[in-house]
Amino acid sequence: MPEAAPAEAPVRIDRDLCIGAGQCIAYAPQTFVHDDETTAVLREPPHDAEADVAAAVEACPMGALTLRSSVPTE
Amino acid sequence: MTETAPLLDVDRVRELFDLRGAYMAHNGGGFSPDPYPLWAALREQAPVHEGTLHALTEGAEDWTFQGLPERDRPHFTAFTYAACNDVYKDSELFASSANAVDPTASAGVESSMLSMGGAQHRRYRALVQPRFTPKAAEWWIRKSIQETVDALVAHIRPLKRAELNVDFCAAIPVLTITGVFGIPVEQALDVRAAMANPMDVITIVAPLVAARREEPGDDLISVLVQAEVADEDGVVHRLTDPEIYSFCILLLAAGSGTTWKQMGITLTALLQRPEVLAAVREDRSLLRPAIEEALRWQPTDPMFSRFVTRDVDFHGVHVPKGAVMHIALGAANRDPARWERPDEFDIHRPVKPILSFGGGPHICLGMHVARAEMVTGIGALLDNLPNLRLDPDAEPPRYVGFYERGATAIPVLFG
Ligand code: HEM
Ligand code: SF4
Asked: Which domain holds residue A40?
């Protein structure tokens, strides 16, 4: 089931679209991780450079990730 | 470490992995000009051209790869990043095969998930995806990559010189996959040879499948024999033998040649730029960016293809239902709309996704394994072979091949 991400989360994950390909984790390993269904979830707290998170969002082959406008940086 | 030296029969490895030898002739192994300037010109003229990539490329011949030859269909090729990405992202309009796939039919790549679409593809891919995540790459390293790499390096190290493309790069992916399948090292080259004829792969794999059905272990075949998949009607069944064989044939075909050639390409790019090689040796965090940049700049498979499922106006071209759309991802990876100085190999670029592992639902299943093999392999060379350099008295490596590109021999000295 889609988990509502907290309002300040940098990225929204559509769990129905995610196939677990792991591109997000390759580009932003401090922000994304797989749960035990091999579906992406956010790490708490997410902390990658803004550019890496943006790359992860773009790299998702399924378009399952949406960047929120306010991405916290380190 | 295994008692190896030599781990594999080196002459046989050379024969099976010679890019210019007969083994690769069908996909353009002998092609030696640099196709990129031609592809740049085509990309500049239009995002999408009518024709196959080889027909559009001067000097190329009537070679085959995914979506080829298909002589009765019209062919188109996408060249810009935007057009290639759009093909990958719309897997309904651009399907991976012309016909529905019956996974219970005879085993082969045509019956594998590579050819499936939609929900069917998703169900089959989900069975193996957990063993192919970034985290699972650590399992692959422990299970076979590290041991393979250590054994090969131990063999090379005392020699002071080596040919890295075949004697190192080629051996790693075959041994990695066969290791994770639980196929003994002595049979690894038989597997490579058998790939030309899927029935031979089945002969090797069948007894293993039977054994793991009896007693599962910590290997990929055991994952497959225990996997359950729902069919169209929601009825759940264990994978049949042909389904498992198709998975095995796909994994062997997709995972051994690609990573070999990409690792050779990466090493060649570094060895030809001693200052870049020195920087990577000095600061190992640059190895990953170097591998990614080599993937962008010189992907081993510069084209994949899709079947068009309805009439569409696509990036300025009318494309009819039934046509084949070729994705010239090699050209897309050098699109100046996306990268500055795109023809330069520059490991310090800002991070930006590339298309070398494809995109959409069929994005490379093995990409994290491939990255782990290249990081482990090249890292071990840098750790163990001081002053690694191209042999100045030997013929320098060049990039050859068309639908499967790679380096010629990579003769090096060290110590
Ligand atoms: C650097 C090495 C590699 C490159 C460049 C590469 C490239 C690709 C590309 C471009 C695709 C997409 C094909 C398409 O669009 O139709 C693909 C798919 C695939 N690759 Fe790789 N690959 C590599 C290594 C591997 C390895 C090591 C494995 C397995 C261990 C593997 C297994 C697969 C599989 C199973 C698929 C099909 C996925 C699907 O249909 O859902 N690849 N690869
Ligand atoms: S890249 Fe996309 S599909 Fe892959 S795990 Fe991340 S969210 Fe899921």
From this structure: 11-59
* CATH code, domain with A52: 3.30.70.20
- The model's pTM: 0.93
Element (H, E) at B75: strand B75-78
The sign of the dihedral angle between the CA atoms of B182, B183, B188, B193 is negative
Dihedral over Cα of B273, B275, B281, B284: its sign: negative
List, in sequence order, every residue forming a beta bridge with B350; answer none if it has no partner: none
Amino acid letter for position B62: D
Helix, strand or coil for residue B246? helix
B59: left (phi over 0), alpha (psi -120 to 50) or beta: left
Level-2 CATH architecture, domain B10-413: Orthogonal Bundle (1.10)
β-pairing verdict for A11-13 and A65-67: antiparallel
Looking at the CA of A55, which ligand is closest? 2
Residue A36 lies in a domain: yes
| Chain-chain contact of A19 with B358 (C-beta, under 8 angstroms) | no
Alpha helices in B215-341 (DSSP H): 220-226, 241-271, 274-282, 287-297, 329-332
Report how far residue B38's alpha carbon sits from residue B44's, in angstroms, rounded to the nearest whole number: 10
pLDDT tens, residue by residue, B208-240:
999 999 999 999 999 999 998 888 788 888 999
d(CA B152, CA B213): 32
pLDDT at position A69 = 61
CA distance readout (Å), B299 to B20, B87, B212, B330: 18, 18, 36, 6
* Nearest CA among B292, B318, B272 for reference residue B371: B292
B227, B225, B229, B205: which is closest to B214 by C-alpha?
B225
Residue B356's contacts (CB-CB under 8 Å, 6 or more residues apart) are B295, B296, B299, B301, B329, B333
Tokens 């995002």 map to which residue? Answer: B47
Summarize pLDDT for A19-46 with one digit per residue, the tens.
999 999 999 999 999 999 999 999 988 8
Identify which of A19, A23, A63 has the shortest CB distance to residue B129.
A19
A26 CB neighbours in chain B (<8 A) are 134, 367-368, 371
Q: Please state the ipTM of this predicted complex.
A: 0.88
Distance A59 CA to ligand 2 centre (A): 8
Angle, CA of B14, B176 and B254, to the nearest 5°:
80
